[in-house]
Amino acid sequence: MSTQQGTGCCGGTKLIFACSGAADVGAVADLAARKLTREGVGKMFCLAGIGGRVNGIMKTTEAAETILAIDGCPLGCVKHCLEQAGFTAFRQIQLADLGLEKGKTAVNDTNIAKVAAKGATMLGGGGCYPG
Amino acid sequence: MRTIQILGTGCPKCKKLTEVAELAAKSTGVAYTLEKVTDINEIMKFGVMMTPALAIDGDVKTVGKIPTVEDICRMLA
C-alpha cells in the first residue's frame, strides 16, 4: 500500500480495486485507480490481499462503505476475485464497455482520465481523506 | 500473555474501543498487554485502511467499528 495514503478514521471509506493486469488495459485500470486515489475520490486497495485472503485487508474491505472494481477486460478478474472472497455488493467498471479493448488501448492520460471519470461517477465523486 | 492492539490515531471511537477491549480482557481474567498503534504507517502494516481497528496477537479482528464486550471476550477465548 502506498505510504501516501492515510487511513480513514471511523469507516466510510470507498475502496477501489483494479486488475492491474499485464495488458495495456490493465495498466490503464491501475493508473485510473491511482488517479482516483490522488483526487480523493476513493482509495486504491490491494487486490492481491483479497486473493491471498490477507486478514487485515479482508477485514478492511468488509468495513468499506463502497467497493469499486475496475476490470481491464471482459475476463473480469477483479469481479471474480471479490466474489470468491465473499464480496458481492460492489460496483464494477469494465473497460471494454468504455470502448477500451485489450491490445488496442494506449496507456495515456486521455484513456486514464476516461476511466477515472467513470469511476468518480460511480463513487459519487469528491471525498476528503486524512493522511 | 495476549497482546491486544488498538489501531487508531486517537479519535473518540479509538478511545471507546480501548475501553471496551480492556473491559473484555478484565472480565475474562486473561493476562494481557494493551498496545496502542497510532502511527499511520504502522497501522497500514496490518493491512488496515480504516480505524479504529482491533488486533489480538497481531491478527486483525475488527476494522472500522467497535465490537461489543461479548464479541471481544469470544475473540480472547
Briefly say what this structure is.
By secondary structure, chain A is an alpha/beta fold. Chain A has 5 helices and 5 strands; from the N terminus they run ββαβααβαβα.
Characterization of the model:
- The complex is a heterodimer of chains A (about 130) and B (about 80).
- Chain A is an alpha/beta fold.
- Chain A has one domain.
- In chain A, about 40% of the residues lie in helices and about 15% in strands.
- In chain A, β4, α4 and β5 form a beta-alpha-beta unit.
- Chain A is globular and about 35 Å long.
- By secondary structure, chain B is an alpha+beta fold.
- Chain B has a four-stranded mixed beta sheet with strand order 2-1-4-5.
- In chain B, α1 crosses α3.
- Chain B is globular.
- Chain B has one domain: Glutaredoxin.
- Helix content of chain B is about 40%, strand content about 30%.
- In chain B, β1, α1 and β2 form a beta-alpha-beta unit.
- The chains are: A alpha/beta (about 130), B alpha+beta (about 80).
- Chains A and B meet through β1 and α3 of A and α2, β3 and β5 of B.
Offer a few descriptive terms:
heterodimer, A: 131 residues, alpha/beta, four-stranded parallel β-sheet, 5 helices, 15% strand, globular, disordered C terminus, B: 77 residues, alpha+beta, Glutaredoxin, 3 helices, 5 strands
Which helices and strands occur, and which strands form pairs?
The complex is a heterodimer of chains A (131) and B (77).
Chain A: E1 8-9, E2 14-18, H1 24-38, E3 43-44, H2 47-51, H3 55-62, E4 66-71, H4 77-84, E5 91-94, H5 109-122
Parallel strand pairs in A: 2-3, 2-4, 4-5
Helix pairs in contact in A: 1-5
Chain B: E1 2-7, H1 12-28, E2 32-37, H2 40-44, E3 50-51, E4 53-56, E5 59-63, H3 69-76
Helix pairs in contact in B: 1-3
